[in-house]
Amino acid sequence: MLNLSDLPIHSIILAPTHMHSFLNQTLLSQSNGKIGIRFYSITSYIQSQSLVQLPSSEAILFAYRNKIKELSTNLAIYKEAALTPAFLKQCYQFIQDLKIWNISPQSLQEDTPSNKELKTIILSLYPITTSGNILHSNEVLLQHKSASHIYIYPSLFSCEEKKWVDLLLSNGAHMLDDTMENISSSFYHALNKRQEIEGCAQYIIQHQLDAQEVAITIADTTYTPIIKQIFQRYQIPFCDLTYSNKSSISLQRLHILLSYYLFPDYDHLLPCLDCGIFHVDYLTSLQKYLQIYQKDIFQPFHHLHEIKHTSHILDEVDLKKLMDLEQESEQARLQIAPLLHPIVHPDSFETLFLDVLQYVFDSVKNNYQEQSVLVQVQTLLQETLPFIQTNEDIEFFLIILGNFHISSALSSIQGVSISTLSQGQLTKKHHFILGATQNNYPAFPIKSGIFNETYYQSIPYPSMEERYQKHLQQLQQYLFRCQHLYISYPVGTYEGKSLEPALEIEQLFDHPSIVYPLQESYEANIQKPYLSSAVATELFVKNHTIKGSISSLERYIRCPFSYFLRYGLGLKEPMKLGFSDSYMGTLSHYLLETLTSSYGKQYTQAPITKINELIYSEILALQEVFPDMQARLQTMRTRIRESLLQTLSRLHEFEEHSQLKPFLQEKEFHYNFPINGEVSFSLHGFIDRIDKYQDILCILDYKSSAKTLSETNVLAALQLQLITYSIVTKHLENKEILGAYYISLKNENITHSAGKISRRKPITYTEIGKVELLASLQNTHRLNGWSMSKNLSLIDDEGTHITGIRCNKDEEIVSSKLYNLDTLETYFNKIYKIIGNRILNGDISIEPSEHACDYCAYHEICKFHGLPFERKPLIEKDDAIYWNGGNEDA
To answer: Is 305 helix (H, G, I), strand (E, B) or coil?
Structure first.
């Protein structure tokens, strides 16, 4: 066990930096502190033997880059790669090895054109001073210097560190002993890494292990976020030493601002506005406005206030919202444009970096850790700024900034300590090794890339076998110096790919691994939102009525919680930004309504000039609102024209065989359905079209795509619209309802074969002609809905234009199902009462039906991720729903 109580004053302890806080805690607990005891990492101690100020590795990469630019005309094979950060980093590490091991670059091989060019590059970069020069010269000095005051912690040393450790030990340094008597070793496996971590967490809790006496070493760094998540859920305190979470908001903001300087466009402006640096009035409005209109931030926003044409597609409410948005955005623009100008048009690179640093510093002035990061960045800039002369140099700087190592003190050293195989940590009573698969263990640092193990074989550098054996030896000592060792691995990935334990681990045990004991039976804690009747009445009932539309009640059936948020709490859905794809359907709807109002029964033969005029005026109005979309709108103009002409052609066939004529368009209605003796539904809506023949009416509803009316959905209250329209119209107009049907305005795709082959001898081929194609088109585009009267010949005297209607053998037009509207009204009165009572009883459960969450604006509130709930009929159907007590001519 580690004992630091006998250390002399002014001793030096050498250990990895992440262990210093733990060693200092141990020192304080054992001796109440010692004056003059200092902590170094091995590398920093060797460097401290000289007072020479070393440049950072980032500044050296810039120096390398400039040197290679001078060589670029002489390079052929590595000309493109030589200036990349990845290549320069490999060169830096290789030159470090050459200097530390005192290997002359002249000894590099030249047997191939590639190696010859590499040698030329290394020879040109080698003279640039790096820490390798100082480390080697200081190593020579230490050979004749006593090290009796130095105490070395037995951590996992690299090849170079091991060389320096051996030197110090030979000069009188002491190796600390942190070994406990190993009592037990266990070998486990789990289904995947999440279950492996769950097993580890449950083992700690079930065996009541002291978190301060538990260490976890992970062989795979992807374990870290999962460990944090699971340990937080189990409330196990932990200390993360892996540096996997050392991301900095300051570095991100610096990157965003400098990227905007390089590329001052829309894609780089939005991150600037969203990164938390600028705080101006109406900033959110400015962001929304720029997502709709990609305007120049340095030019005034005013085009919406200069609109001359009005649109029937974009209604006044939406246009008013856009105009208000533009006005607010202009106020934000006036505040933020002066702040962005120094970034886009700096006086020099120096002023650019000063302004950017100041912006970021002001944004984190209350965050000490982020200010510490900026101090490190400022030091980096002081070293690298002389190298930055062009925009390409800034791009290179941004790449370096993205990999910049942030040095920061640990916020806490309490609880379970988590480290990687390459780090190691102080010995604790219980040691868990996670992820010990063949891919991850023993984490031997093999030389790869351009300077791989094959290349290293040509220089006097320790061989891979020698380094590998020393690495294994250190790992085995590290594993077995605790009292209780637990090694585990996952047998598979989340995708189902199998994994095997590391061979080195299997050789440590004389028995196979066993399954990690894992308790998997948990009781789901489902909290169902609930309102009392009093609160529900207060929220939904006004003047003894629940006001709404049919679609709002269909929303309630699809998801009661969504209805509660929208109509109970009044949370309005956010305005949809930009040009909506639904505008094309809205335009088709408006054109048909206008033509029907103007030409009546003859609307399908409206003059093409009139159609062009209507479309042009609407597109022109949209162009004024969305000037950046002129090309798209012109394409839309052509598409809508062709689509409308095809729709009118199909409807012409329908009108030719119907005696009904257009009677009302966009018929507004108000109608009440009683819920109980005190409260009723007050429904308000618009019926697209009502056709008429004498005292018979027919309901027609335009849809952007094909839609069917399903008995299952109707009785489950998922499709209330058409039947409610029929009931309302029957009472308001006091006339018979022939039926209610959907008219699809979409040109549906159809499967059409070129011909048919008869396989009977003789084999024949019959080509399918235009007549069959037109029949297939007509069949695909038939109206769909429910018929409610036997007078079907009035609407389709051929029986070919409405689904379910046909001409029978007696040449009568009949329907496969003929519905009784009086019975449907009885059903619907019950359905509305059931829905109303559920609302009044406070049922706002989060139980969405299928597809209810697809486009829901409130999903971020409920965060539902389960399976959809099936909707069953609210009432049972009987034969009274049909005329004559059953299916008519079924």
So the answer is: helix
> What is the radius of gyration, based on Cα positions, of the chain?
39
| 482, 428 contact by CB (below 8 A) | yes
Please tell me the distance from the alpha carbon of residue 303 to that of residue 299, in angstroms, as a whole number: 11
pLDDT digits (tens, 9 = 90+) for 303-343: 888 887 777 787 777 888 889 999 999 999 999 999 999 99
8 Å CB contact between 642 and 612:
no
Average pLDDT, the chain: 90
Q: Does residue 60 contact residue 130 with C-beta atoms inside 8 Å?
A: yes
Give strand ranges (E) for 184-330. 184-190, 214-218, 238-240
pLDDT at 559 over 90: yes
Residue 6 in tokens: 């006998």
d(CA 733, CA 690): 11
Give the least confident one: 367-371, 602-606, 802-806. Answer: 367-371
793-to-65, 408, 657, 658, 783 alpha-carbon distances in Å: 86, 84, 8, 8, 15
Taking alpha carbons only, the member of 770, 778, 749, 775 closest to residue 650 is 778
User: Which pLDDT score is estimated for 411?
Assistant: 66
* Residue 733 burial (C-beta neighbours within 10 Å; 0-12, 13-18, 19+): middle
For position 305, what pLDDT does the model report? Answer: 84
Q: Tell me what pLDDT residue 294 has.
A: 87
Continuous H helices in 600-629: 608-625
- Which residue matches tokens 């066939």? 653
Angle between helices 85-100 and 131-142 (to 10 degrees): 20
DSSP per-residue letters across 283-300: HHHHHHHHHHS---TTS-
Q: Are 298 and 338 in contact (CB under 8 A)?
A: no
In this predicted structure, what is the pLDDT of residue 579? 66
Which helix (H) or strand (E) element contains residue 702? strand 696-703
Q: Which two tokens stand for residue 437?
A: 């698969």
What is the number of alpha carbons within 13 Å of residue 484 lying toward its C-beta? 10
pLDDT over 90 for what percent of the chain? 66
Enumerate the β-bridge partners of residue 485.
Answer: 185, 431
The mean per-residue pLDDT over the stretch 719-740 comes to 95
Q: Report d(CA 363, CA 375) in Å as an integer.
A: 14
Residue of 7, 44, 26 whose CA lies nearest to 426: 26
Q: CA-CA distance, 375 to 378, in Å (whole number)?
A: 5
What torsion do the CA atoms of 33, 34, 36, 41 make, to the nearest 10 degrees? -70
Phi, psi of 805 (to 5 degrees): -105, 135
Under DSSP, is residue 548 helix (H, G, I), strand (E, B) or coil?
strand
Identify the CA nearest to 642 among candidates 621, 671, 611, 597: 611
* Burial (Cβ within 10 Å: 0-12, 13-18, ≥19) of residue 412: exposed
CA–CA distance, 751 with 214 (Å, rounded to integer): 67
Tens of pLDDT, residue by residue over 246-264, are 578 999 999 999 999 999 9
- Kindly give the pairing relationship between strand 184-190 and strand 514-515: parallel
Outline where 345-437 has alpha helix (H): 349-363, 368-384, 391-402
Q: Which DSSP string corresponds to 524-539?
A: ------B--HHHHHHH
Contact partners, residue 258, CB within 8 Å, separation at least 6: 352, 356, 394, 397, 398, 401
H/E stretch holding 715? helix 711-715
- Among candidates 689, 688, 583, 549, which has minimal Cα distance to 315? 583
pLDDT at position 769: 72
| CB of 555 closer than 8 Å to CB of 671 | no
Kindly tell me the sign of the dihedral angle through the C-alpha atoms of 391, 392, 393, 397. positive
What stretches of 379-511 adopt beta strand conformation (E)? Answer: 416-420, 430-434, 484-490
d(CA 519, CA 540): 45
| Nearest 10 degrees: Cα torsion 60, 65, 66, 68 | 120
Q: Which residue carries 């929303």 as its tokens?
A: 555
